[in-house]
Amino acid sequence: MADIYLDFEAPIAELQKKIDELETVSSLNNIDVSSEIQALSGRLKEMMSSIYEKLTPWQRVQLSRHPRRPYTLDYINMICTNFLELSGDRRHSDDKAIIGGPAKFNNMPVMVIGTQKGRDMKSNLFRNFGWPQPEGYRKALRLMRLAEQAQIPLLTFVDTPGAYPGVGSEERHIAEAIAVNLREMFNLTVPVIVTIIGEGGSGGAIGLGVGNKVLILENAYYSVITPEGCAAILWKDRKYAPQAAEALKITAGKLYELGIADAIVPEPLGGAHRDHEKAAEFLKAELAKQLDELCKMTPAELKAQRYEKFRAFGCFETVKPDDPEVVAESTEK
Question: Cα–Cα distance between 176 and 83 in angstroms, integer?
Fold first, then answer.
């Protein structure tokens, strides 16, 4: 399958094509061009470092949606063992956009839950393009309660543009399903770690997003709305998505600065899609570190810490109108 390059990766694609051509010539004609290939490979690495160190928020959003990027099942299979997928919400049906079940992480029993996309049209239709429906969140809630009953840590993986907004989804009360998940996740007495592995869009993300620790991959994003949705509302045109991505402060670095993300998980040079195993290795190391810290806390401490973490979001100060400092500042202006 041919490599997929984004618009801003055009110089990388061109140089990689030259390297591939030299390798083909060398193979077919038995000519030694290893020195030329090595020189071009060095230039390629320098170019990639230069480009990926200066990515705009919109470019990171594009990387978060790359079709070759590892998805929830990929990470589960690479960092966990003995995964057993459980299906159904015991009310309506089984939503394939959310998967989950018990597994072992570093030989420790855990419950893993995450949103799942497809890689081609057939699998995307099967997974509803990663847009969960009410039964998906209710399935997730069932698995969360199983984790609570078994007193095992809960690991959630988020990669969705949002909850499915269709008529059927509304008829089965998508908002209520997400709201119940929020309430119940705050009441869990087991360690909960949330990882944004790609897109973290709107209520679709927060329905699995209440954790003691929130991790985010280097090129993932987490937002109340997609940049396109924001642009459509504010500018009445989706072409302003790059400006919206900048204004929303949705990238890993900004979220870490704001205290919404507790840690940024690095990705291989060029993005997680270039080396799945390396990306999983980075994620596994951070999860192990955070889980080790949380497992030392009591159930009451875990519940209280989670509550206080989210209560601290969006801090602001209130002052009296007649405060001398406020009056002085207004006068100066």
Answer: 29
Q: Average pLDDT over the chain, rounded to whole?
A: 92
Q: What mean pLDDT is predicted for residues 56-64?
A: 96
Contacts of 257 (CB under 8 A, 6+ apart): none
User: DSSP secondary structure string, 239-278?
Assistant: GGHHHHHHHHT-BHHHHHHTTS-SEEEP--TT-GGG-HHH
pLDDT, mean of residues 80-103: 96
pLDDT of res. 37: 86
Q: Torsion angle, CA of 169/216/157/166, rounded to 10 degrees?
A: 10
Distances (CA, A) of 52 to 14, 58, 87, 128, 292: 16, 12, 39, 31, 32
b/e 221-242 (16+ beta carbons within 10 angstroms → b): bbbebbbbbbbbeeeeeeebbb
What pLDDT does residue 1 have? 45
Tokens of 270: 């060029």
DSSP 284-317: HHHHHHHHHHHTTS-HHHHHHHHHHHHHTTT---
Average pLDDT of the residues in 81-92: 95
- The token duo for 109 is 């029993």
In whole angstroms, what is the distance from residue 273 CA to residue 294 CA?
A: 29
The Cα 253–Cα 216 span in angstroms is: 9
Tell me which residue has tokens 């302003």.
Answer: 240
Q: Is 62 helix (H, G, I), strand (E, B) or coil?
A: helix
Q: Is the pLDDT of residue 333 over 60?
A: no
Q: Which of 271, 280, 275, 219 is nearest to 48 (CA)?
A: 271
* Residues in CB range of 160: below 8 A, 6 or more apart: 97, 115, 117, 130, 131, 132, 199, 200, 201, 204, 205
| 29 or 331, which is more confident | 29
Distance (Å) of CA 266 to CA 48, 89, 182, 284: 15, 34, 28, 11
pLDDT at 254: 94
Cα 312–Cα 63–Cα 83 angle in degrees, nearest 5? 75
